[in-house]
Every structure is written in C-alpha cells, then in structure tokens.
C-alpha cells in the first residue's frame, strides 16, 4: 500500500508513517474487536419496541424496582413478598425494552487524508466506524450511515442483519480509497454543515449517533445543528487528529508530501511553535466546552493511538 511520509531534512521518512487506505476485508476482520465494545452502556431514548433497556420506566419485561403502592397501580403488579414483610402494599416497576438505531456520520473531507504518524485520519475514522458497526450488529441494533466529503454525501438507510452491516463496511472502504482533492476552508465548512443538516432531517429521535471527524472548519451554524442533534438523541463525538496538528516537530526544517507536491515546514521559530500549539488547544477546548454544555460524549484519538483501547475506555466510562 502507498504511504505519504513526513520527510526529515535529509529526505528520509520519519518512522511511524502509516496506511493511507483500508480494504473491505480489513474492516471485516475487525468484527471480533468490534463485538467486544461495551456499546450497550450508552443509554437509549428510542420509543420503538426492541431489545434495549431505557432510562424510561413503564410496563415491560425487565423488573426495575419496587416502590410503595400508588393510586392507579395495577393489582397484578403488587409485590406480595415485600407487602407481606412490611405490612404496606408495594408495586413492582419495570423498565421497557427498546430498540435503537445506531447512526454513523463519518467525515471524508480533504484534511482527513493526512497523517505523519500511525495511519491517515480517514483510515482511523473508517476503522472506528467499522468497529462500532460490528458492535451494533452483534447487539441487534439497526444500523444507518451518512458519509460525506466536499463532493457530496452517501447514505445508508436503517437496517439490520449481515446485509446492512456489509453494505456499511463497503461504503467505508470505498470512501477510504477515494481521497478528496484539496479544498478551501469554505468548501469544507459547507460540506460539514450540509451533512449535519441532513443527519438532523433523517434521524429519528432516540437514536445513538456517532460523529467521527477531526471537526475542523465548523461554523456557528454547524454547532447549532450539532446541539440540536444532542437534544433528541444520544450523541457521541470521536475526534481524530494527527500529532503534528497538536505540536510541531522538534526545531528543524521538514517537508510534507502528498505523493506529488511538497510543502516545507520550518519549526525553528519558537514563537511559531507556541502559536501552533495554542491554536490547536483553543479549538480542542472549544469543542470540549460544547460537549459539556449539551451532554455530548466526546472521545479523542490520535492517529498513532490504540483505537480499540480508546473506544473501550470511552464507552466504559459511560457505563460507570
């Protein structure tokens, strides 16, 4: 497979450059790892009958707790053991079983086809989406997807079973191998905004939505659509980034290549390194504030991080 390396001053590639695309077969091989993700931990708001326990209480198949009898409770739900022990009538409460739709919104704009360490951000996004899809498939969720770039978007309507899972895997592999041409910030901003508008329109309230992106070039309108999604759904953001975006390399002159063009980076200026670091931290802090304010789950993963560990740790925190 081709690699686009970060070059050192002498023209040799830095160690750790990674894959730039994924295949359908490699995403299928993630089925076992994806099936081990604790995806059941995220709460469910869907009103569709199915296999999940929601935070909403009502009649259902799973006993939740007993509480003192209240006027209107059904006689058949009285807990006679507690009633006999306490001398006061108690009723059983149940949690309704619910089905949910898991929607994957994956960014394939031009900046996603980049990395200096590990793998391309687009590869990381594809692998993360595949693992989440396999987890949802194992748990019997309905899967849907929206994948977008500056050239437009493609959608996968909600469905269950092997056919839907494999269709989603195929779309992820296709997008990973179709690098977007260079684009202007305005084009990238429009693409993200339109994709958020679209997922807002087609997603039913109560869905579990994973947004996988580097979240660059988002305007205030995009943030409004983001918070609207969080108001009616369980929303998880997976922010992917390359270490170079967070910190310029040690003082020196470097070259970046896309296989045809070269761009020089001069990191000898300490003030430039500091400005680069502060700009990155400001963008990260802004996204974190949005997530805290609106109850959005946020995971962050670098291109050279252990993706399965990041997902397991993040989803595990939601369980706790």
CATH class descriptor name of the largest domain? Alpha Beta
Give the proportion of residues in helices: 25-40%
- What would CATH call the homologous superfamily of the largest domain? von Willebrand factor, type A domain
Encode the helix/strand succession as letters: EHHEHEEHEEHHEHEHEEHEH
**Poorly predicted segments:** 1-18, 56-60
**Number of beta-strand segments:** 11
Number of domain units: 2
Distance between the termini: 40 Å
Helix count equals: 10
* Reported CATH architecture of the largest domain: 3-Layer(aba) Sandwich
Q: Quote the CATH topology of the largest domain.
A: Rossmann fold
Looking across the biggest beta sheet, what order are the strands in? 6-5-4-7-8-11
Mean pLDDT level: 84
Biggest beta sheet summary: 6 strands, mixed
Which value, in Å, is the CA radius of gyration?
23 Å
* Structural class computed from helices and strand pairing: alpha/beta
Describe this structure in words.
The protein is of the alpha/beta class and 320 residues long. It has two domains: 6-46 and 100-319, von Willebrand factor, type A domain (Rossmann fold), CATH 3.40.50; 49-98, no CATH class. 39% of the residues lie in helices and 27% in strands. The protein is built from ten helices and eleven strands. It has helices spanning 24-28, 31-35, 80-86, 121-138, 161-176, 185-202, 220-232, 243-246, 270-294, 307-319; strands at residues 6-7, 48-68, 90-99, 101-107, 142-149, 152-159, 208-213, 234-241, 253-257, 262-266, 297-302. The strands form three sheets. The chain has a six-stranded mixed β-sheet with strand order 6-5-4-7-8-11, sandwiched between helices. Helix 4 (121-138) runs antiparallel to helix 5 (161-176) and helix 6 (185-202) runs parallel beside helix 7 (220-232). The protein is elongated. Mean pLDDT is 84; it is low at 1-18 and 56-60.
């Amino acid at each position: 497979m081709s690699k686009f390396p970060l070059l050192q001053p002498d023209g040799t590639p830095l160690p750790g450059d990674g894959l730039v695309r994924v295949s359908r077969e490699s995403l299928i091989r993630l089925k076992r790892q994806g099936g081990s993700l604790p995806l059941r931990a995220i709460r469910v708001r869907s009103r569709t009958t199915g296999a999940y326990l929601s935070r909403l209480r009502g009649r259902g198949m799973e006993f939740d707790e007993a509480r003192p009898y209240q006027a209107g409770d059904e006689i058949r739900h009285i807990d006679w053991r507690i009633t006999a022990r306490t001398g006061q009538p108690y009723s059983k409460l149940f949690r309704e079983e619910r089905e949910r739709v898991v929607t994957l919104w994956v960014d394939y704009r031009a900046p996603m086809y980049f990395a200096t360490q590990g793998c391309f951000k687009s590869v990381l996004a594809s692998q993360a989406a595949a693992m989440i899809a396999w987890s949802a498939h194992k748990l019997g969720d309905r899967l849907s997807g929206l994948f977008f770039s500056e050239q437009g978007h493609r959608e996968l309507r909600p469905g269950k079973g092997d056919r839907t899972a494999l269709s989603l895997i195929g779309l992820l592999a296709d997008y990973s191998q179709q690098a977007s041409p260079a684009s202007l910030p305005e084009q990238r901003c429009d693409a993200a905004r339109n994709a958020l508008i679209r997922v807002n329109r087609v997603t039913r309230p109560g869905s579990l939505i994973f947004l996988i992106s580097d979240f660059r070039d988002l305007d205030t309108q995009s943030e409004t659509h983001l918070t609207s999604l969080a108001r009616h759904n369980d929303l998880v953001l997976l922010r992917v980034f390359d270490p170079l975006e967070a910190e310029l390399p040690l003082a020196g002159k470097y070259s970046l290549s896309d296989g045809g063009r070269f761009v020089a980076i001069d990191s000898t200026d300490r003030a430039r390194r500091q400005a680069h670091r502060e700009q990155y931290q400001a963008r990260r802090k802004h996204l974190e504030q949005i997530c805290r304010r609106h109850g959005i789950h946020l995971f962050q993963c670098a291109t050279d991080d252990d993706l399965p560990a990041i997902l397991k740790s993040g989803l595990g925190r939601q369980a706790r």
